Amino acid sequence: MMHTQPVLSRPSRRPQIELHTPEVDFIENRLTEYHPAFDVSKVRYSKNQGQFVAIVPPCSQGLTVPNVSTPSQARPMPAPIAEMEFWDNIFVIAMKRLDEESNIKSKWSIRHLSKWDDIQARLEDAQNEYNFNNQSKTVGKARRAIRNILDNHHSIPQQIGKVVPNSEIAGPIVGVINLMVDVSVNQEPILGIKATDYSVEAYSKASEVRDEVTSSLESLPACFAKIDLYLQTFEKDENVIKASTDLVVAVFEAVECSIKFYTSVQATRAVAAIFGGKQYQANLVQSLASIKSSCDELENQARMSFYHCMKGDNERMSGDLSSIIQGNTMTHVGLGAIMHEQHAQTESMLWVQNLVNQVFSLLKDQERNWLPHSPCPSRPLTPQPLTLPVLTPRQLWSQLSIPNLDEVDLQHIAGRAEEMFQQDRGRAQQIVTMSLFRSWIDSAQSTKLLIHGSFRAAGDVSPLSTLCTVLSLTFRQTGRFISLVFFCGRHLVWDDYHGGAVMIRSLIAQVLRQYPTQYLSPEVHSCLRNMGDIDTLCDLFRILLGQIPPSIPVVCLIDGINRYETEEYLDDMATVILRLVELVDVSSHGRNTCFKLLLASSLPTREVQRVFGGDQNALLHMENVPVSETTIGLNLFQEQLDHQM
């Protein structure tokens, strides 16, 4: 019997099939055909819960910035002196200054040399000559040994002078010994002092000068390293450049004096040491001291340049910090808008979830009540389509047929803010500090406030219009409020959009823009049949306001309300104001959306004041506001108001 090898099938890429009840299958596959509101792509059936649940996207964990620390770099060892970068810029200048400031014999001069290597070689040749390295090894070694002995025992010439008698025969012998140790052979008393005393003092001074020359020349690499570092750090600092040039000139001058010292005749140095006294090699000592003072001055200039840079960096950091704070504020506003959008999307998905579960419950009830042996109907029943309303905020906004009046008006009035504040002499700015205004803005419940002005507006706006503009912009920038605004003075008979109906339509459009929820209540459809009726528009505004969560206060600012107290506008205006005041009164006693209403009038009103029913806690008269001698600009006033809120 032949055995066939089993065929290995590739794993299927199709998802695993799960069997659901007929009602679940109907909702997932056919319910969308009846109405677009049943968007089942946002829900899924949960076996554990026995119902449909919303598919909520995972919350963002936020943007994280990796902790990247800049590795600290250790300062490298100084480069060889001849390879340091500063020579290219300073060598020629320093050599030119040296030639202008001092003169020296050509045999000791280094002014014809063009690089430090040549100067160093010239100095080393002079040192070798001074240290007897150019003589035979035996002689040079012996003379260096004698010098070392005498460096440690300065009293030898004096002791020899005491042992050998001071006579014409012994004088030449002492002179030869003194000559070998760089002192004078002259043994004649000078001013009553014996020559041996001069010899000891002279040799001691000569030894000190020689040691000072050696130590100063050995410190040159450290000086050059400072010049190279400071010039690289403060590349364009003229103070550091000048101090570095002065130091190089001092080094060149000291090198020439050192070459002169090293190559001078030994007997000449001995005579100079005896007769010069403390002034022995004064030029050389002074040039060596100049190196130290120039090096100190370079360090001082570098320190001051460092402090100057630190001051500039601190100022720049302060400016950058202000920019960062401003950027953080804008980011906070943007994140607030994003969170608001996510909240709206979540509510939309929960609304779909509840809708689908209601249908699911109806289908399950129908299945349970279905008779198992019920006869089939004689004719199929005509399915009744589900007439559930669906309307997006954009579609509703398009039916309002009104532009963004608030944005145009805010931009226009903000351009005249400075003029209005100066005209009003600061009274409108003081309103925000008054107790009635503070009570209106600080209250956690719905409140209303009517502001009566005491001046006649020459144009379409007044100082109160500027105050409403600042309030509206501040509320909107915080990201925590919905700010509605309407300027009656900007929409009179000469404008295409004027009257109470335009006012309520504009407020509705602003709500739809600032709170673009993903779904609208079915009650909205009842208002669509008669969008030309002002009472219907007020009902629509009330319905939209009821969909806003209580955590988001709604602030409504209406400026220039006295402009609509005319025969042409009074009826529609009164209807809108009455309905807005009713919203304040109803919301203040329940858990509905917090609704704050502020009406501003450049002159006292009659009809509007009656609506407030004589409530003195809701009426603010500007005639009680004193005139201020100083006013502040729009931006500063807005910052102060934002800080207060």
Automatic annotation (TrEMBL):
Keywords: Repeat. This is Nephrocystin 3-like N-terminal domain-containing protein. The lineage of its organism: Eukaryota, Fungi, Dikarya, Ascomycota, Pezizomycotina. It comes from Fusarium pseudograminearum (strain CS3096). Pfam families: NPHP3_N. Residues 429-582 form the Nephrocystin 3-like N-terminal domain.
